């Protein structure tokens, strides 16, 4: 709101990124995301707009995924995995997702001790689902958590070095998994990627690693924070919790509002401005960069009535949490089903669930881009 008071498009300086424009309204955000001829993810020389010259080659290789690509490469890569994320395929996974959620919920409290929901539930559920979808061994989830932790705590040079080691290990691991699938076949998306490679090579070996890396990262962290943010809000608002517990078929409607209210992805990757352009009355020059603030779009009073109010029955709900345009979240249906299943499994299994500490003691991690509760200690 403070930024929006300065205008729909505001100049600012961002850590690691530098000078950028930020959109603060729903309208300006949608304009940028939908005009992918003017606002591109790559510069003319092909470099990713958000990466800096000093970032190691490894980062560039891993960032070589659909999320950082413009047409036609974006369409080529998204087309390869689109089928696996179609509604039919994801709905077919729902019973399995519910079973995973039920099992995790049942194991949450050992001997009545408090448990951290983020670590023991919200993190493991999406990771388990994406592992199954990709065909990665469940036993390797602990490694992904360690890597995700390295990615989510970039505070000083030591943590940056730690991240580089983590990325290197992760790349080696994923290359190993792809090789295994080449030699032995298998179930899941990794095996399907290998099949695509075999049939004509629409994807390079480096792009395959980057794709799996993207799916692992985009498919787990974000959903983790949607789940923990939703649980936190329900525990703070007993009236809303009662309303939901009365009828779990309301969960999908509620999840839409949690998506808006929690806004797990606060802003998108920087877009590069290809030509001089006027955006909501503000002149941007060719070569400038823009970041769209999804969280601000989600709180824009021009679009959402009383945006600061958590209204689980909100309809219509034009939130921007999954972005829009050609990069609209590939995993949106999966995330929605995961969140609804996670809430129902948790609150049904533990009817007396509550916060183990005062709500004011819950901390958010300082990570640019993703809004996350660091720990959510609960008692049952
Ligand atoms: C793209 C949010 C869950 C996979 C995006 C974008 C957003 C987003 C905002 C667009 C970014 C941009 O335009 O710069 C979220 C949120 C999630 C979630 C809030 C959970 C609550 C998932 C899941 C998956 C996934 C479960 C699946 C594995 C992807 C992929 C892209 C993407 C592959 C890139 C799509 C493209 O470039 O065409 N997501 N996401 N996401 N998301 Fe999600």
Automatic annotation (TrEMBL):
Family statement: Belongs to the cytochrome P450 family.
Cofactor: heme
GO molecular function terms noted in the UniProt entry: heme binding; iron ion binding; monooxygenase activity; oxidoreductase activity, acting on paired donors, with incorporation or reduction of molecular oxygen
Keyword entries, A-Z: Heme, Iron, Membrane, Metal-binding, Monooxygenase, Oxidoreductase, Transmembrane, Transmembrane helix
Name of the protein described by the UniProt record: Cytochrome P450 PksS
Transmembrane segments: 144-165
Function: Cytochromes P450 are a group of heme-thiolate monooxygenases. They oxidize a variety of structurally unrelated compounds, including steroids, fatty acids, and xenobiotics.
Organism field: Bradyrhizobium stylosanthis
């Amino acid at each position: 709101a403070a930024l929006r008071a300065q205008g729909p498009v505001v100049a600012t300086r961002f850590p690691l990124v530098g000078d950028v424009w930020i959109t603060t309204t729903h309208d300006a955000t949608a304009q940028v995301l939908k005009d992918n001829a003017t606002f591109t993810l790559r510069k003319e020389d092909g470099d990713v707009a958000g990466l800096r010259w000093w970032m190691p080659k490894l980062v560039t290789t891993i960032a070589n995924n659909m999320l950082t690509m413009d047409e036609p490469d974006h369409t080529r890569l998204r087309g390869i995995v689109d089928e696996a994320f179609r509604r039919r395929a994801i709905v077919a996974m729902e019973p399995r997702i519910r079973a995973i959620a039920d099992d995790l919920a049942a194991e949450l409290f050992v001997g009545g001790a408090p448990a951290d929901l983020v670590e023991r539930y919200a993190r493991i559920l999406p990771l388990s689902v994406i592992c199954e979808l990709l065909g990665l061994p469940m036993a390797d989830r602990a490694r992904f958590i360690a890597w995700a932790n390295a990615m989510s705590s970039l505070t000083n040079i030591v943590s940056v070095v730690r991240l580089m080691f983590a990325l290197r290990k992760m790349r080696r691991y994923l290359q190993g998994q792809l090789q295994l699938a080449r030699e032995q076949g298998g179930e899941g998306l990794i095996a399907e990627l290998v099949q695509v490679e075999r049939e004509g090579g629409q994807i390079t070996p480096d792009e395959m690693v980057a794709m799996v890396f993207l799916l692992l990262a985009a498919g787990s962290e974000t959903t983790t924070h949607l789940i923990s943010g939703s649980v936190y809000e329900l525990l703070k608002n007993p009236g809303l919790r009662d309303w939901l517990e009365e009828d779990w078929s309301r969960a999908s409607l509620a999840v839409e509002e949690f998506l808006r209210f929690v806004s797990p992805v606060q802003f998108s990757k920087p877009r590069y401005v290809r030509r001089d352009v006027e955006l909501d009355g503000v002149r941007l020059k060719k070569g400038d960069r823009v970041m769209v603030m999804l969280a601000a779009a989600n709180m824009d009073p021009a679009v959402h009535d009383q945006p600061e109010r958590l209204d689980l029955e909100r309809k219509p709900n034009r939130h921007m949490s999954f972005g829009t345009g050609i990069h609209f979240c590939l995993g949106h249906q999966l995330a929605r089903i995961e969140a609804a299943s996670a809430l129902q499994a948790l609150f049904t299994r533990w009817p007396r669930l509550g916060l183990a500490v005062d709500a004011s003691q819950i901390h958010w991690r300082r990570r640019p881009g993703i809004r996350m509760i660091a720990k959510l200690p609960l008692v049952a």
